Amino acid sequence: MKEKKPKNALEAFEQALKGSEKETYILNLYVAGVRPISVRAVANIKQICERYLKGRYTLEVIDAYQSPDVLAGVQIVAMPTLIKTSPLPMRRIVGDLSDTGRVLSLMGIYPRE
């Protein structure tokens, strides 16, 4: 079914929101071993993804100690760091990801709850 062309800015915005509900999020979380902050970050992002992106995300956890060569091209300055590569724009979030509202906002996710 073909979507109709928006008549105004509000309709365009609403169509964009509907489209974002179908997008797959590609996330990479860079951690430093099993430090408490890394463990919290993994648990927090998994909880956020399952609650707000269920069935439409890919999450890869990369341990800097186990895969140091992966860090070379990514320019990580602190860990844990979450990088959202898709949908654009790319975003980076540093920390344990415990502030769900901040994480959702920076990732461009606006839940309807």
Give an account of the 3D structure.
- The protein contains 3 helices and 4 strands, in the order αβαβββα.
- The model has no long low-confidence stretch (mean pLDDT 85).
- With 113 residues, the protein is an alpha+beta fold.
- 19% of the residues are buried.
- The chain has helices at residues 9-20, 36-52, 100-107, and strands at residues 25-31, 57-63, 81-86, 91-94.
- The chain has a single domain (11-107), classed as Glutaredoxin (3-Layer(aba) Sandwich), CATH 3.40.30.
- A 4-stranded mixed β-sheet has the order 2-1-3-4, covered by helices on one side.
- α2 (36-52) links the parallel β1 (25-31) and β2.
Strand content: 15-25%
The residue-averaged pLDDT reads 85
Q: Could you spell the SSE succession in H and E letters?
A: HEHEEEH
Low-confidence stretches: none
Biggest sheet strand line-up: 2-1-3-4
Number of domains as seen in the coordinates: 1
- Decide which structural class fits the backbone: alpha+beta
Number of strands: 4
What is the molecular shape? Answer: elongated
Query: End-to-end distance, in Å?
Result: 27 Å
CATH topology: Glutaredoxin
CATH class: Alpha Beta
Largest sheet: 4 strands, mixed
CATH architecture: 3-Layer(aba) Sandwich
Radius of gyration: 16 Å
CATH superfamily: Glutaredoxin
- Fraction of residues in helix: 25-40%
Number of helices: 3
